[in-house]
Amino acid sequence: MQNTAETGPADPVDVTPLLDDPYAAYAALRASGPVHRIAGPDGQPAWLVTRYDDVRAALADPRLSLDKRHATPGSYRGFALPPALDANLLNMDPPDHTRVRRLVVRAFTPGRVEALRASVRRVADELLDTVEAAGRADLIADYAGHLPIVVICDLLGIPRADRRDFRAWTDRLITPDPSRPELMKQTVGELLAYFTGLIATKRAHPGDDLLSELIAVRDTPDGSAPEGAAPDGSAPGGDRLSEDELTSLAFLILFAGYENTVHLIGNAVLALLDHPEQLQALRRNPAELPNAVEEFMRFDPPAPLAIRRFPREDLEIGGVRVPAGDCVLLSVASANRDEARFPAADRLDLARGLSGHLALGHGIHYCLGAPLARMETAVALGALLERFPGLRLDVPRESLTHRRTVRARGLISLPVTW
């Protein structure tokens, strides 16, 4: 991979090093320059930003748009979703982003999330009860992969009987099978059909859940479309959601709330097993779990890249000219290992006086579900370490593998015993 600050754009280079040994690859990139031309996840050229100061500034730069309509035509393929699932916060700029975020943010306030703590701990204990007698478990399949789906489905009001389908759907979307491309289209179609049906059911029979609240925001008190709505269900303005925005929000909350938390819990457990002195320190002082979660997010974040952005105009990032419409990828994983911001950045240090990591973003697109992710991870780790003081790997460390994608950083399995 090469720096283009002085030489100008080069042929995009392969991202294989970021899959095989990402943190070593990011260190080499930071050392050679702040911005690099790479082959992005969709195979198209993209600009990768690696240093902390540049990533942080770009995350809050309004000239960098999340709206795919600002991409140069034909330059970006991305993740294809139908309009009813694509009208979400990850594709929006103000004022639509401001309007939609304001309508949903109250569901993720620290106070409301804290009220969920007891039920999250109950679910964690039930999952651990299930595996305790066996003396071993795959912490991804048996624990980390279950807890977030239960929590997010409870939040949205999704029936328990449907949750196995959701886990299969999200797994297929996270790591699609390249030999069966038809599965992706099938999965998206099944998700859309499910959410469309669920919204219709909850519209007729509201419950005490977030999805019912969002439907109430979408609808007028009598359940009809808001006065002035377009035939396609688009919003007439003000504090309303279009029908596509409603469906897309439900999809985003489920998908992001599940995927990132699964990976965060798994990565955190592995980091502790790789650093037994840190594990023992945390056992001695479990009150430090909230601070430890921040260090886990810095050290090995579940989403290595922020959502792609497109410059509205030609601009400079780290002294490199980036043309309008090009795809820009901001590596929060690299930024969080930048020695210029975090001394001894490659060392896990749960006592680190930590502030400013970028795992949850920065600026107006800061992660909406951050309070929930923090609480879930702290509860999951606390319950696990309390229950199994002898926790250790049940396979050779070198046999563990991560999902082979630059979009997500998560273990395929994590076999442990105790």
UniProtKB/TrEMBL annotation:
CDD domains: CYP107-like (cd11029). Pfam families: p450. Residues 222-239 have a biased composition (Low complexity). It comes from the Bacteria. Residues 221-240 are annotated as: Disordered. InterPro entries: Cyt_P450 (IPR001128), Cyt_P450_B (IPR002397), Cyt_P450_sf (IPR036396). Gene3D superfamilies: Cytochrome P450. Coiled coil: none annotated. SUPFAM superfamilies: Cytochrome P450 (SSF48264). Belongs to the cytochrome P450 family. This is Cytochrome P450.
